[in-house]
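Sample intake sheet
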Amino acid sequence: MTDDAPLIRTIDLKQHFPLRAGLLGRAKLTVKAVDGITIDIPRRSVLGLVGESGSGKSTFGRAVMGLEKPTSGTLEFDGIDMAQASPDQTKALRRRMQMVFQDPFSSLNPRMSVAETLGVPLRFHELELGPAGRRDRAAEMMERVGLPSAYIDRFPHEFSGGQRQRIGIARALIMEPDFVVCDEPISALDVSVQAQVVNLLNDLKTSMGLTMLFIAHDLSMVRYISDRMAVMYLGSLVEIGKASDVYFDPRHPYTEVLIASNPEPDPATERQRASTAIRGEIPSPVNVPAGCRFAGRCPKVMPVCHEQTPQLLPLLDEDRLVACHLYHQ
C-alpha cells in the first residue's frame, strides 16, 4: 500500500453483545457497544479517542485489535480485510499491531520477571533468537522506555505504577509494530507520572514511526499527543477533526460540555465552567434512544433531534466532521 493510504480503516464497524436470559439462555436484548464507526487512521499519526465511560471507546479499540470479532462492518489493516485474511496473513499482521492496557499491574504476570515478560512475543515471532538473544533485546527495550536494564530480573511488584506501565509499553513495542492501541494508558497512574508516560509515548511515536489509537478521558493529554481527535458518544462518533481545533473550538454540543467538564487547575475558571458542565447520565447501550443519542442531555436540543438521527458529515470550509442537526438540516 502507498503511504497516502490509511493504515487502519473501519467502515460501519459494529460490535454488539447479546444479553441472554431464561433457562435456555436465549438472547432477548442487545448491547450496542459500537454502532457503526467509519474512520481512517493515517500512517505515522495519532488518533485520540475521547468520551465518557460507557461510550464504547475501549470496545472499539479491542475490535480494531481483533480481540473481539466485529458483529458487522469492515476492518482493514494496511489494505487487508481482517475478516478475509488467511491464517498466515493474520499471524504476520499480529506482530505489526500491539496494545498497551489500562492497568499496568493486572496486565503483567506477577510470576514472570521483566526478562520473561518481554521475551514472550519474541519466542513466538523471532524463532531464530535464543534465550541470550531474547534477553539482550529485552534489556535494550528497557533502556529505550527509560528503565535501567539492570532491573531485567525483577518482578512487577518491585516496580512503581509508572515503571510497570513502561514495562507494558516495552512489551508492546519490542516487536517494533506499526500500530499500537493505547487503552487508557495513564488513567491508573498518579498525575505527576501521567505526563512522563505521555512524553515517552510521544517520543517513541516519532523515533519508531508509530501509528497510534490513543484512548483516554483526559482531553488535555489527548490534545497534546494526538494529531486528530474523535469524540464518541453511546457507540457512535459525533465529531472528528484536528486535535487542537476540536479542543479549543468544539462544534458538537456534546464535545462542548465534555470539554467544559475537564478539570481546570484555576479555581476561578473551574467555578465559571461548572455551570456549563455536562448533566445527567449516559443512556444504556441496550436501549439506544431514537434520533440523536445526545438529545436527552443536550442544551441545544431541537424537535428534529428526537426524530431523526444526524449523520457524520463535513462542515463547510473546515477539516471537521460533525453529527449534529445544528449544522446539517
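Comment: The chain has a mean pLDDT of 90. The CA atoms of residues 162 and 191 lie 10 Å apart.
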